[in-house]
Amino acid sequence: MTPDEPRYARPRVDRPTRLVAVGLFLCLGALLGASAAPGGRALATVGHAAAGAVLGAGMGLAWMETIHRAGGRMHWRRDTLWAASWTVLSAAGLVHLARFTHPAAAPFAAALCTVPLARAATPVAAAWGALAAAAALAAAGAPAAAAGVLAAGTFVAVAPGPRHRSAFRWASASFGTATATAAAATAAAMVLAGPGLAHAGPWHTHPVLAVTAGMLVGLPAGLAFVPIYDRVAGHATRSQLFDLADLGNPLLEHIASCAPGTWQHSRAMANLAEQAANAIGADALLVRVGAYYHDLGKAEAPRFFVENLEAGAPNPHDALPPEQSAARIVAHVRDGVRRGRAGGLPEDLVDFMHTHHGDGRVEYFWQRALRAKRPRPPDEGAFRYPGARPFSRETAILAIVDAVEAATRTLERPTRRDLEHVVRQIVFSKLLDGQLDDSELTPADLRAVATTLVDSLLAAAHERVRYPWQEPHGGAPLRWDASDGHVPLEHDGTPGRLRVLDGRPEGP
Question: What pTM does this model have?
Answer without folding.
Answer: 0.71
